Amino acid sequence: MAFLSLSLRPAVPLLCSLPPFLRISTASAVAFPSRKSTVAKTFTKFFCSSLVPANRISVLGDLPRVLAVAQLSTEVTQASFQQSRPTTMAHVVRDRVQLTDLEERIFNILTAVLEKFDLKTQLRVAGGWVRDKLLGKDSTDIDIALDDMLGREFCEKVNEYLASLGEETHSVGVIMSNPDQSKHLETANMRILGMSIDFVNLRAETYADNSRIPQMEFGTPEQDALRRDLTINSLFYNINTREVEDFTTRGIRDLKAGVISTPLPPESTFLDDPLRVCRAIRFGARFQFELDEELKKAAASEAVRNALNNKVSRERVGHEVELMLGGNKPEQAMEYIEDLNLFSTVFRIDANSKPDPSIPENYGRLCVDTLRAATKVLQKYKSSDQLNIPVSTHIIMKSLVLKNKDAAGVEILFNFAKEFKLVSEKILQAESDDSADTKESIYREDPDLAAISKHRVELGLLLRKNKELWRCTLLLSSIMELPSVTSQAHSAMVALSVDNERWIEEKVKMCNLVEDTVNKLGLTKIWEEKLVLDGDAIKEALNLSPGKQVQEWKDKVLLWQLAHPKGTTEECLGWLHEENVKRLKV
């Protein structure tokens, strides 16, 4: 059986909500996409830690839970569940591109450059920006295609124009293409009014039999549109005329119909560049578009599967998988992969590994069903303060941003989830107790009652360690029981979780109950609460020197404070002296 090992990299501080990436570094030539991500590695290690030693996991046996938790890290805590499989339907597509004020100003500068230097160049925004604008979505990914000059040359004209107005000029970055493959074509980049813009040439391309890297040359708008991966990505916005151009004649039609198709015949498109199969799946899931029947037939063919195995690096496949899992419908992307018989190709193991008889033939379907089960739990749980923030952002921004802290953060997060599961079960048990007095005692703020003290201390300590991540670990703990594919219980458990609302409701009930308990016990932001007696106060009260003993007393003060939410500083000092006397007598 092939195994994966997990490797860590320093996390990078993020300034906005970023999606999680399922990136795993392989120990051998095995072939889960070899990318790295703290989030997915974290969850992967947790779900597999009890099955095999150290940080190694069974590739296929635990893949369902890897995917399920990747979904957990992707979704928001406030969402509504929609059926996984999309329905073909008409989509609202605008007749014209509506520019923002900034886009209008940028395009006016570009057309002014044409006028000043009497250029006949046609400026066209290409690809995803046009698609998104027609769908009414904002986009900052502006790629401008030029029909008669290099991007660098046009950028120099832009700077010359700005200088003539006494405006600030900007540096131009140039990415040179491989001259053996692209005949000296290049991409130039510069910032205009603060926005980064790429300038490229209209291109035509041909492919060698054994490579997905095309030979590039100057092309016409039609050739450039036809070389695109999908019809919905082949549209242009002509800045000169301010009109949308659809040289394939199918881009707008497919956008309105909600269909994913290719400009050229899909089989030849995929054989030229097999990675486009993954891109078709990703965009289909992202926009909830239906895959074209001819496209599905080509994608599921043995020839395309072999090409995806042999012509595309695992890193590139991994990049597409991470984008799928970072999208709004990762479970749909995985379902497309399974439906197209590509699961064992995308998530393949070392060809030299012996088949594991414990892995069922339909493991791909079981993986998808497990992911759907986790999705249902996640999307039906709503936090009390109506958060709408990706859980992955909490993890990356709030916990794992410190340099060289990844390993410790991973270990701590997994332990949190285990602890949360135990605490959640205790709270659920107390709630189900028939005694009204027992239930009431859990929430009554009487410091002398053992029930409230025990619950508040245990839950408070856990929240202080989790901080803003506590909802993430709560959700994580709710799907911990999903077994491995190799487990005999897997099929029954997945069937229960996917098709039986009772399983879902039980998990949602547990999450809601824990959150209610947190609120009732006044623990909502307990990690921000300062100790009633800090280290200096403890040293002064007990006449201690700095050292380990002070920290031990601080830990005890924290326990007292959690058990006595209304306790004063004077009361804590009295307790401190009493405890110290007891300790000295011993």
Automatic annotation (TrEMBL):
InterPro entries listed in its UniProt record: NT_sf, PolA_pol_head_dom
Name of this chain's protein: Poly A polymerase head domain-containing protein
One GO process term, biological-process aspect: tRNA 3'-terminal CCA addition
Species per Swiss-Prot/TrEMBL record: Marchantia polymorpha subsp. ruderalis
Protein keywords: RNA-binding, Transferase
GO molecular function annotations of the record: ATP:3'-cytidine-cytidine-tRNA adenylyltransferase activity; CC tRNA cytidylyltransferase activity; RNA binding
Keyword hit for Transferase: yes
GO cellular component entries: mitochondrion
Residues annotated as domain Poly A polymerase head: 123-260
Source domain of life: Eukaryota
Record-stated family: Belongs to the tRNA nucleotidyltransferase/poly(A) polymerase family.
Pfam families: PolyA_pol
